[in-house]
């Protein structure tokens, strides 16, 4: 029997996070709320402060040695920033073995590269790799995660990935060729939404509203409008038209936004961020 099961109990799946930053913490917290046991989750981080925080807050075991975590995990989640991946790669090569799987939330690094460098290399390992792109609202359990399956990822691997990331919000599966475009909408989009909330609030303050009230109105308005779209209340264009009465105040505002290039600017932001995302893994 695999020694990993001897230590943890028959049939338990150990999920190890390399990197215990804010996104990893959000996912771990969501997993525990969704029914995972602390005994099923481990973490590794170079910061002793982060390790102590994760152990005290979530009851998981955190390590300063990546290889120890990798050897004790069935699924390894790479939750470091992509620029730190080269520093982690030697530990992966030294510790990964047949039967494990690798999930990655590193932006811009395709599954083919991960398969080649950490799962296949020049050896005989053909480990399943799943690429995941969660976004910042995962920090409050309202995220959106895009999954893409690598060459050797099975339905079982994808089911585990879905279970993990569903703990912090919605999950969709796409072909990897679309992941950069999708990530530029869901991954970068929150920044644009925050800018819109701030701008709307600033406009309210300019017209005399207290800052706290203006920000509340702006944030709740974006949240409620998004829920209308998700509830299937209509196409965004149709919903916009319903608010724009003939000769009314809203159509005046829409006209001002159009003159300022509002929609075109957002479309351009998606384009340039998608292109940047594609360049990260090269």
Plain-language structure description:
The chain has 282 residues and is α/β, with parallel strands linked by helices. The protein folds into 2 domains: 3-176, 3-Layer(aba) Sandwich (Rossmann fold); 189-280, Orthogonal Bundle (ProC C-terminal domain-like fold), CATH 1.10.3730.10. It has helices at residues 3-8, 22-33, 48-58, 66-71, 85-95, 111-120, 155-165, 179-186, 189-206, 211-230, 236-243, 249-259, 262-280; strands at 15-18, 41-44, 61-63, 75-78, 101-104, 129-133, 143-149, 169-173. Helix 2 links the parallel strand 1 and strand 2 (41-44). The longest helix is centred in the C-terminal third of the chain and has 20 residues, at 211-230.
What is the overall silhouette?
elongated
Number of helices: 13
- Class from helix and strand fractions: alpha/beta
Q: How many domains, in number, for the residues?
A: 2
Number of strands: 8
Distance N to C terminus = 40 Å
Helix content: 40-55%
Mean pLDDT: 91
Short description:
The chain is α/β, with parallel strands linked by helices. It has helices at 3-8, 22-33, 48-58, 66-71, 85-95, 111-120, 155-165, 179-186, 189-206, 211-230, 236-243, 249-259, 262-280; strands at residues 15-18, 41-44, 61-63, 75-78, 101-104, 129-133, 143-149, 169-173. Helix content is 54%, strand content 13%.
Blueprint of the fold:
Blueprint: H1 3-8, E1 15-18, H2 22-33, E2 41-44, H3 48-58, E3 61-63, H4 66-71, E4 75-78, H5 85-95, E5 101-104, H6 111-120, E6 129-133, E7 143-149, H7 155-165, E8 169-173, H8 179-186, H9 189-206, H10 211-230, H11 236-243, H12 249-259, H13 262-280
Parallel strand pairs: 1-2, 1-4, 2-3, 4-5, 5-6, 7-8
Antiparallel strand pairs: 6-7
């Amino acid at each position: 029997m695999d020694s990993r099961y001897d230590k943890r109990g028959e049939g338990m799946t150990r999920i190890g996070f390399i990197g215990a930053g804010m996104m990893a913490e959000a996912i771990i917290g969501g997993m525990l709320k969704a029914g995972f046991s602390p005994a099923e989750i481990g973490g590794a981080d170079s910061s002793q402060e982060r390790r102590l925080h994760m152990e005290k807050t979530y009851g998981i075991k955190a390590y300063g040695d990546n290889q120890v975590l990798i050897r004790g995990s069935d699924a390894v989640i790479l939750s470091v920033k992509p620029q730190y991946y080269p520093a982690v790669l030697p530990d992966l090569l030294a510790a990964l073995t047949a039967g494990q799987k690798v999930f990655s939330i590193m932006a811009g690094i395709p599954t083919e590269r991960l398969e080649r460098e950490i799962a296949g290399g020049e050896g005989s390992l053909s480990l399943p790799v799943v690429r995941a792109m969660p976004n910042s609202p995962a920090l409050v359990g309202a995220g959106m995660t895009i999954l893409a399956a690598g060459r050797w990822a099975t339905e079982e691997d994808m089911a585990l990935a879905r279970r993990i990331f569903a703990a912090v919000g919605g999950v969709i599966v796409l072909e990897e060729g679309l992941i950069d475009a999708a990530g530029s909408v869901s991954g970068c989009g929150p920044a644009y939404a925050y800018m819109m909330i701030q701008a709307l609030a600033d406009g309210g303050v300019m017209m005399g509203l207290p800052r706290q009230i203006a920000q509340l109105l702006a944030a709740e308005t974006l949240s409620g409008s998004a829920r209308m779209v998700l509830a299937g209340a209509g196409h965004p264009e149709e919903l916009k038209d319903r608010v724009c009465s003939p000769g009314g105040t809203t159509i005046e505002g829409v006209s001002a936004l159009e003159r300022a290039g509002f929609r075109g600017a957002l479309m351009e932001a998606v384009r340039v961020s998608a292109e940047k995302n594609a360049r990260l893994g090269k």
